[in-house]
Amino acid sequence: MSDQKNYTYAQAGVSIAAGNALVRAIGPLAKSTRRAGADADLGGFGGVFDLKAAGFTDPLLVAANDGVGTKLKLAIDHDAHDGVGVDLVAMCANDLIVQGAEPLFFLDYYASGKLVPETAERVIASIAEGCRQAGCALIGGETAEMPGMYAEGDYDLAGFCVGAVERDRLLDGSAIRPGDVLLGLGSTGVHSNGFSLVRRLAADKGWKMDRPALFDQEVILLDALMAPTRIYVQSLLPQLRKGNVRGLAHITGGGLLENVPRVLPQGCHAKIDAGSWPLPRLMAFLQAQGNIEPEEMARTFNCGIGMVAVVAPELAESVKDALYAAGEEVFAIGTVEAGERGCTVFGPTEVWSARSDWSATHNA
Predict the structure, then answer these.
(1) Rounded to an integer, what is the distance from CA 11 to the centroid of its chain?
(2) What is the pLDDT of residues 76-93, one digit of tens each?
């Protein structure tokens, strides 16, 4: 009779039972994201989407994937998991809408050293909420339990989103002309970029995350920092379908300076007046805490603008009014001028706490 030890997967740190229980728990969450073209049932080897059922006739598929960055570390350290799934969907879905594509379906990747079902379910519930906001179906995903790969309590997230746009409606910026107006859509906070700097400031300055924010005594600092990224899909889709928008820029890493030029054709330069919208108090707090120069703010944070729409001057007011009616904060923040492909953000003394007139330029 052999006295050799019998090994099991569970002894190696992987609980198949916990994974199966999680799939059963999140099934109703996925079903809540059903839409035309997808039933959002989980458990198969792959998700299926019917483009014809979604109403497309000559579509181009557009795909995007992204993560949440080091905002996730803040969520882990402070048990603040209930919004990061919205962030994950937003980072992908907003990248689709800027190309004119309607987000259709989403898949997530959740990886940890040891699966904690309660945490995972909170995260995936948040992903489902993001999918409902974006109008896309959660049709699948992967939950990976990998002992030894992550520190205790840590996990990582990645999202994958596919959308479609009719071939003649693809938004590639080629229609943008000098004289076009830049409309800025308000952000909900830091969104999902710049958190490495935020976390460094928090550590160096000894912020108390569970206390009211210095800039707003009605809000806990952690809640202000963890506010989910705004998803702009539903407010922008009607304007895209009417052909009222010539270009869109999602303001992520690189800020206004580096993201706006990505949608401009050669010969077009965006001029953005930093005094044309109020710098949110959270952004002013971050700037003051870090003694951050205006130029650095413009290339690090969204500074209160999460999306920029480029529209013809004769449509600027009507598009602005329509977006406002759809629930957006909207500001006319600048214009497109003839020049080298790029962006200049400028402001006078005192705007963004500047000690003198300032400008920052990034040419693509």
Answers:
(1) 38
(2) 999 999 999 999 999 999
The length of the chain is 364
Domain ranges of the chain: 14-169, 181-363
DSSP 236-303: HHHHHHTT--SEEEE--TTHHHHHGGGGPPTTEEEEEEGGGSPPPHHHHHHHHHHT--HHHHHHHS-T
| Model confidence, pTM | 0.94
Residue of 136, 34, 41, 38 lying closest to 90 (CA atoms)? 136
For the segment 186-238, what is each residue's pLDDT rounded down to a tens digit? Answer: 999 999 999 999 999 999 999 999 999 999 999 999 999 999 999 999 999 99
The residue assigned the tokens 């922008």 is 236
What distance in Å separates the CA atoms of residue 320 and residue 244, rounded to the nearest whole number?
11
**In CATH, which of 3.90.650.10, 3.40.50.970, 3.40.30.10, 3.30.450.40 is domain 181-363?**
3.90.650.10
Residue that is written with structure tokens 């003694």 in the block: 291
Q: Which two tokens stand for residue 126?
A: 């948040």
